[in-house]
Amino acid sequence: MSTGANIKERILEDIKTAMRAQDKIRLGTLRLITSAIKQKEVDERIVVDDADVLAILDKMIKQRRESITQFEAGGRPELAAKESAEIAIIQEYMPQPLGDAEIERLVAAAITQTGASSIKDMGKVMGILKPQMQGRADMAVVGTKIKAKLSA
Which residues of the chain are under the pLDDT cut of 50? Predict the structure, then answer.
């Protein structure tokens, strides 16, 4: 990972660029991100690092995906489109997603490293994988892969 505030600094620079370009959607989304970051810093009295920022961004993407489902079910495609646009902007700050083969390799390595042998050991495996995969893989999918390997 890179140093402390790199993603945060990049977002702040991009806010200035969006203001100059008068890109209202981008500006609004970036302000939502900085608001979420500041909220975490104030609530926990910390200065967030890149890992914290990725966790915040990951949560924001999940929230928007849930909203899209709700809006589409409610017949509000214009609101779903707005959420999709926000997801695209947020994802610019996320690392490259891991491929299936890479996820499998990391899961196998974590199981070997922890000596996990049953579903009871799943927490140990997740504890190792979560920091490595934060924002790069859907942890629900990773959990399913771990269960499958430990059940076999």
Answer: 1-4
pTM over 0.85: no
Cα maximum dimension of the chain? 56
- List all residues 6 or more positions away from 65 whose beta carbon is below 8 Å from its beta carbon: 83, 87
Predicted confidence at residue 1, as pLDDT, reads: 36
DSSP calls for 22-89: T-HHHHHHHHHHHHHHHHHHHHHTS---HHHHHHHHHHHHHHHHHHHHHHHHTT-HHHHHHHHHHHHH
Cα–Cα distance for residue pair 137/140, rounded to 1 Å: 9
